Amino acid sequence: MTAIPQDAALVRITDLHKGYGAHIKVLRGLNIEMKPGERVVVIGPSGGGKSTLLRVVMGLEEIQQGSVTFAGKPYISAEGSKTRIDTEQRKKIGMVFQHYTLFPHLTVLQNLTLAPRKVHGVSRSAAEDRGRAILARFGLDAKADAYPSQLSGGQKQRVAIARALMLDPQLMLFDEVTSALDPELVAEVEAVILQLASQGMPMMMVTHDMWFARNVASRVIFCAGGVVVEDGPPEQVLGNPKEERTREFIDRVFHIKG
Amino acid sequence: MELDFSILLKFADALALGLWTTLKLTVLCVAMGTALGFLIGLARASENALIRIPASAFVEFFRGTPVLIQLFWIFFCLPLVLGVELSNLASATIALTLYMGAITSETFRASLRAVGREQMDACVALGLPRSVQILHVILPQAVLRAVPTLLSNCISLFKESALVSAVGMADLMFVGQNISNNTARPIEVLTAVACIYFIIAFPLTRLVTRIEGRMLRKLAA
């Protein structure tokens, strides 16, 4: 693992533009600098580009303009109509999605070991040992040989997190990972993420759960209309926002929550 | 006229022989046709138009014309084109294999498409190279999804194979027609033949329903 200089950004997003077709602009010149060890929670109204931002950072989307660097090196850039993505850099980032996206034809353990074995050439037994250890940490040891269809939503999402961790990511992306869960299953997934946070895992996440955002974030970014509207510590952005648009959004969210 | 099913007992051996021919032909054409359909299904999903368009043309032709005419065409025209005589078993096998290939290619294509965009996202996020995505994630799911429909395709082929009697193959249908002509007992004989087809097809259709339920539950994750 290459050492990251203390002053360098882990992720630097510069003037990011992303749209679909000619008329739909999702991101309109977005700038974010994420330092090593930060836990960034992105909040904002739907359609504001939060999930798109995470998908871009994962290297899942084409961009029209701008660039992303990772650990001080070029990662994604728009060159003319093409998007250049350094796939070696991409391997250092892990992502968990709203709808689990486990491989339904593979057991839990096979889900975990597929990428280490096929991408990194780890032996089957070493990958399985590692997989079982991570599952045990997440309280899923009994589910190693189960198929995803036999798991609850909360278990599936914990498996998805375990699967991403198998590759030792230097950054984890969580895209509304509790939004599809029944309310009583949210806590078990959030507990796993908090566990990772306490171990210093850098993460960037989109969530609608403001309580969780406050607990996990070291920094909160309010995104609306495809740009960063406000960026600061959680106490500021969630508690006492400086920007009028952030304040309106926070008031509305907490009003709905009662 | 009174119905007399007892005459069938005299022809039990002939019917059994016909059934054996039908089963052999079905199994042969299912095996080869499904393999062909798998390849054509992949070809139709190809991004290369030179591969995709001929494959699509093949499928549309065989899906859009009556099997009986395909059978006649291969039986009568293929020897003219190739300059070799084909046995009626060979031409029936070719015709039904091509037909089965066209039908199952649609099954495979639909199941390939059913493997969602999100699965691809997960593959990219895990850094899986294209070859691993295809071999370990997409194809296994597509094949599992295809199983119930493929079994339905097999049952259809089993019944449609009765058409080969029209080119003189001594299958179950052909034997039945012969007996019915010779005995002037079409109702008894054809009813019995229909029952034989049904006795074989019915458990298979029940099996399809059960497997379908299991597959859907498994792949719903």
Structural class of chain B: mainly alpha
Largest interface: A-B, 30 and 21 residues
The main β sheet of chain A shows up as: 6 strands, mixed
- Gyration radius from CA atoms of chain B, angstroms: 21 Å
CATH architecture of chain B: Orthogonal Bundle
The CATH homologous superfamily of chain B corresponds to MetI-like
Number of strands of chain A: 11
| Run of helices and strands of chain A | EEEHEEEHEHHHEHEHEEHH
Number of domains of chain B: 1
Extended strand count of chain B: 0
The Cα radius of gyration of chain A reads 18 Å
The span between the termini of chain B is 60 Å
Distance between the termini of chain A: 46 Å
Overall geometry of chain B comes to flat
Low-confidence stretches of chain B: none
Short description:
The complex is a heterodimer of chains A (258) and B (221). Chain A has 258 residues and is of the alpha/beta class.
Provide key terms for this protein.
heterodimer; A: 258 residues; alpha/beta; five-stranded antiparallel β-sheet; 9 helices; 11 strands; 36% helix; 26% strand; B: 221 residues; mainly alpha; MetI-like fold; 82% helix
